[in-house]
Amino acid sequence: MIKLLNRKKNRKKETGSTVRVRWTFLTMGVIFLTFSIFSYILLNTFQRVMLDNETDEMRNLSEELVTRFSNHYYPLTEEATTSMLDEPEIETGPIPAPQFRIEKREEFAPPVSLTKGGIIVKVYNPDEDLIYQTDTQSFRFLPSKEERVTEISGPYGKALSLVVPVHSTYNNRLLGYVQVIQTLKGYHEMTNDIRQSIIIIGIIALIFSSIIGGLLINSFVRPITNLTTAMESIQKNLDSDVRLNEGDKNNEFSKLARTYNEMVDLMQKNITNQREFVEDVSHELRTPVAIVEGHLKMLDRWGKEDPQILEESISASLTETQRMKTLVKEMLDLSRAKEIDVYYKNERTNIIQLLKQLVTNFRMLYPDFQFIVDDDVNEDVFVNMYRNHLEQVFVNILDNAVKYSTDRKEVHVSISSSKEGEQVDIAIQDYGSGISEEDLSKIFNRFYRVDKARSREKGGTGLGLPIVKELLESYGGQVHVSSQLDYGTIFRIQLPIIDKETTPEA
Fold first, then answer.
1. 436, 319, 340, 448: which is closest to 393 by C-alpha?
2. Any idea what the Cα angle at residue 227 is, between residues 225 and 230, rounded to 5°?
3. What is the rounded CA–CA span in Å between residue 497 and residue 424?
4. Helix, strand, coil % over all residues of the chain, rounded to 5
5. Closest CA to 493 of 474, 480, 476, 504
6. CA dist., res. 159 & res. 183, Å (int)
């Protein structure tokens, strides 16, 4: 079993490191692939531009040569070609055949430059015999009737060849062929230099991409690692106060951290409520259960033969059973009051209509009491509160007012609005026994009773006012109490008003 647990832990660690390594390599791959594509496009563009430039130079040179050679009548010869390209002699009149014929001096000035880097010129007569060359290297010669650049093999790799036929401008006779060859020496040297630079830069880029990728992945994985650590801490201890740092930036990780923190807070709040519920119920049920148990034991011993003991025990047991039912119901109400924002956040209620209806009901239940209502609003007022919850609040307060008013049986209810109509104020005043200053600060504590004996006789559990406070605060309201012994008590309730036109009554 221990080995299995260790294996699971190791698997978790391996999984985390594997994800980090995978993402690091993926980031490296993406960065390096982007760099490679960019380098490939850049190199191809550079090669294409260079080839276009070399081709243009070849065409310009061939045109210049063809222009010079086409200005005579007879096919090209070695002597005439050499004379014309190397040391041209200027003549003003016609030259007898078979000598070279020159018409104008401008045809030869300036001399043709055949010394450009990588350029080789070869001249052929009409019979395709080589009669002139600037380099002795052998290249393939393919005569063509039209000007065309072809790729051939050269000493440095790929080379370019341009073969142009030469026709006389006087009789359109074929005089020979001019072949211009570009060995692309500079092209290949520069291309190799660029490739080497790209490789070096690529290695550097790979190193930097691995570093940058690792940093990026760490920045992405760190929040997930923190989340995992926090979850493991919560898993080990549900009361752990470990929370995620939400940060200042409003990004996905901040939202994740905020959601997680809210979820953990809600979970711990529910767990705390559950514990308090169990503890409170266990504590409060101990007394009625003990009473019922005592009466049952007494019945078991003497009640079978004594009708009076039997009747008293059954009556007391039924009373305590009813009290336990009331206690459990109120505890459940108190527990559910903390889930308002989940189940009842969109509920709407007409508070004036509900309060007046409850006062009417209490008048029927307690005809010996006088209920006075002062409504300074005189219109419907809607609040964001579930109707049953609002009714529970008013019933608890009105019921206490009736229970503890023994001499002056009068309850005064006033309704007003404040804060420019944004808040409704309800005041419920009785003229009963009142509450001491010492007890006043504790009346909203669970199971607290001002007079425990009297509260027990009246069926009180000490949960009514805590439920009132919890319900009102869950809906954004407030409750305040002021009291004086033997003069009575005033409960003041405040709730925010909502627009009745856009929110129908619940």
1. 340
2. 110
3. 6
4. 55, 15, 30
5. 480
6. 5
Structural tokens at position 202: 């690529």
- Say how many C-beta atoms besides its own lie within 10 A of residue 105's C-beta: 11
The pair of structure tokens assigned to 314 is: 């059954």
Give the list of residues 6+ apart from residue 22 with CB closer than 8 angstroms, or none: none
> What integer pLDDT is reported at residue 50 of this predicted model?
86
Q: How buried is residue 316: exposed, middle or buried, by Cβ count under 10 Å (0-12/13-18/19+)? A: middle
- Listed in sequence order, the residues at least 6 apart from 103 whose beta carbon sits closer than 8 Å to its beta carbon are 71
Write the CATH number for 471: 3.30.565.10
Is 203 a domain residue?
A: no
Contact between residue 234 and residue 244 where contact means Cβ atoms under 8 Å apart: no
Nearest to 466 by CA among 396, 403, 408, 417: 396
Q: Is residue 161 exposed (0-12), middle (13-18) or buried (19+ Cβ within 10 Å)?
A: buried
Looking at the structure, tell me whether residues 417 and 489 fall in a common domain: yes
Q: Where are the alpha helices (DSSP H) in 366-434?
A: 387-403
**262 and 309: one domain?**
yes
* Token pair for 151: 């790729």
In a domain, 315, yes or no: yes
Do 479 and 389 share a structural domain? yes
Strands 423-430 and 174-182, how do they pair? unpaired
Question: Which of 304, 337, 370 lies at the terminal end of a domain, its last residue?
Answer: 337
Q: Determine the Cα–Cα distance for residues 297 and 286; give it in Å rounded to an integer.
A: 16
Is 226 domain-assigned?
Answer: no
- Enumerate the H helices of 102-168 as residue ranges: none
Separation CA 226–CA 215 (nearest Å):
16
Whole-angstrom distance, CA of residue 24 vs CA of residue 461 = 63
Q: Which H/E stretch holds residue 425?
A: strand 423-430
Burial degree of 375 (CB within 10 A; 0-12, 13-18, 19+): middle
Q: At a CB cut-off of 8 Å and minimum separation 6, what does 374 contact?
A: 412, 413, 414, 415
What pLDDT is stored for residue 428 in this prediction?
94
Q: How far apart are CA 477 and CA 470, in angstroms?
A: 10
Q: Is residue 228 part of a domain?
A: no
Domain boundary among 285, 305, 337: 337
Q: Which domain holds residue 104?
A: 16-191
- Whole-angstrom distance, CA of residue 177 vs CA of residue 384: 100
Looking at the structure of the chain, the number of domains it has is 3
Per-block mean pLDDT, blocks of 10 residues, the chain (506 long) = 43 55 77 84 88 86 85 82 63 39 41 68 88 82 75 82 87 88 84 88 82 77 78 78 73 79 80 73 70 77 72 78 75 67 77 91 91 89 88 89 88 86 90 86 75 51 79 89 90 87 49
